[in-house]
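Protocol step 4 of 6: record predicted structures for both targets in the notebook before any analysis. Target 1:
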Amino acid sequence: MIVTLIAGARPNFMKIAPLVHAIQRAQQLGKNIQHRLVHTGQHYDRQMSETFFEELNIPNPDVNLGCGGGTQAEQTAAIMVAFEKDLMAHPTDLVLVVGDVTSTMACSIVAKKLCTKVAHVEAGIRSWDLTMPEEINRMVTDSLADYFFTTSEVANVNLRNAGVPKEKIHFVGNVMIDTLLANRSRFVKPAVYDELHLQPESYLTLTMHRPANVDEAEKLKRLMNEIVNNVQGLPVVFPIHPRTARIFNDLGISADNLHIVEPLGYLEFNYLVERSKAVITDSGGITEETTVMGVPCITLRDNTERPETCTIGTNELIGINPDNIKPALDKLFAGRWKKGGIPPLWDGHSAERIIEKLSEL
């Protein structure tokens, strides 16, 4: 069996790595399975892409399609054109896509039009918010996939409600957590940790990149002011996303306890997160990692496609209204934040289950 793995953007690499390693282990056990790794080039910044191959011990991709930049439509079209040529030149038994980025949707469409089966890892997750490009990517991909590998019972229900036969749905857990647990002992202290004289649980980590939070200058200013003014003077470390930086740098926002740093590699970023008093974010994946590491997570979103991080884990949605930040931080500093637990099958063996199931199928 030949499996073509698709990776395109930063969240993908953490999900692809354990699958590559599970395939390698299956080969060592004599299983007839091979993989081809296609990097669409959707993220082309080194810190958003290349460093992950080195840090997570993923072999260099067999091809980089170089489809970075452009609008949503331009990027989707570029990926489809390039991947169609690649797939025709390198036929496969299965195209395996992960997550919900543009590459996930674009490569699924191409594969199905070329009559190639598609497996979707992280199938069935939904925010029910069609203003999010990722939600459209998820819905389109799940409408085309042949095999659905899920992270939670909520995702299973979403798929069943959409008419997916239960025999095509496989609850395997969370491959992103496979990577987290496999590398937790390898986290690397970033230079900024000593430069700022940080101490465990004596600073907060911040990430923001969603348009609802960063595209309007006044809104972003209010969010930032509410954060830095309500953390009781603790440092706020903000590894800034390139998209956010383009907007942020024109606003003149500054505070003595706000520290803007370049994007960090996976091992450095999670070292920072693990030792934070809390994380403030609008990311989806980070809410999963904080849940497993037991770090309080304040999410600046009105909805989430990962509700188990709220119902079971350490995450709490507070919306995008800046006025909600102070009450959340007051709760944190009063010691009233929930302890949380770890969702079922988030145990570091999800990729093994996927490859075993694919071998059976």
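Target 2:
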Amino acid sequence: MFGSIEIDIHKFETLIEPIAIIVGAFLVSRILSELVKRYIRRSARILKVDPTNYSFLQHAVSMVIFLGAVFFVFRSIPQLRDIGTTFFAGAGILAAIIGFASQEAFSNIISGVFIVIYKPFSVGDSIKLLSNGQGGTVEDITLRHTVIKGNENRRIVVPNSVISREQILNSSIADLRIQLYLEVLITYKSNQQRAMEIMREEAVKHPLCVDGRTIAEKMAGKEVVEVKIPALEQKGVRVRAFIWAANDADAATIRFDLLEILKNRFDAEQIVFACDDYVLDIRNKQM
């Protein structure tokens, strides 16, 4: 009688550990799942994407915890230990095969997760890929790729694993303002001082030009638009205007407008742009 009681107690004690593991795994899974869900929602609001795109993380966490719990349950019951070892060995081989076949897809998913976490760019940011010069506005970030709206309303689709290795110029991070460098090259015989005055005058008049000066710079009397000569070249004098714009799009509009305006103003005041044809013509006359 006492022997049977001892056997029953031993069986009961054997079941306590697996039950505790399962209950613990369930509680840990619920807690971590809730934490991941909150993080996904917060990141989705920042990136302006559908949070369901990243809900796989929540399920992945639960799956990993329960797989670990099942493993420990099999290891804690002697009768199931051999079966569990064989089962997990086979599952490991299958997982390795699937992982090798899908490594590119997993690479894109993991890179997408890192983009969500570290936020090198967000939806709506104006970025440029320094490797090939392509760029535009980030339109969408999915699990597999990032969609960039480029020039002529065309979309550039870049895999997340590729864009995560790129050097990116982000014009929208921290400060949206852009300091535009507008340059022209004029001949040495042209009135350089007058050219600088015209560039400053027309830039300040442009409706999209903003005052980017700090308080200290205003007190020091710094111009809203500074114009300098950064280089004296063989072809002529390079003149550069430093113009502040509210964003990348405004800077592009200012550049297009001022180039047309400066061409007309310079022609009217006999300020000549330097170019290969002009230099060649001067040389021919001297010969």
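Step 5 preliminary note on target 2. The chain has three domains: 2-101, 121-170, 178-286. The domain at 178-286 is CATH 3.30.70.100 (Alpha-Beta Plaits).
Proceed to step 6 after PI sign-off.
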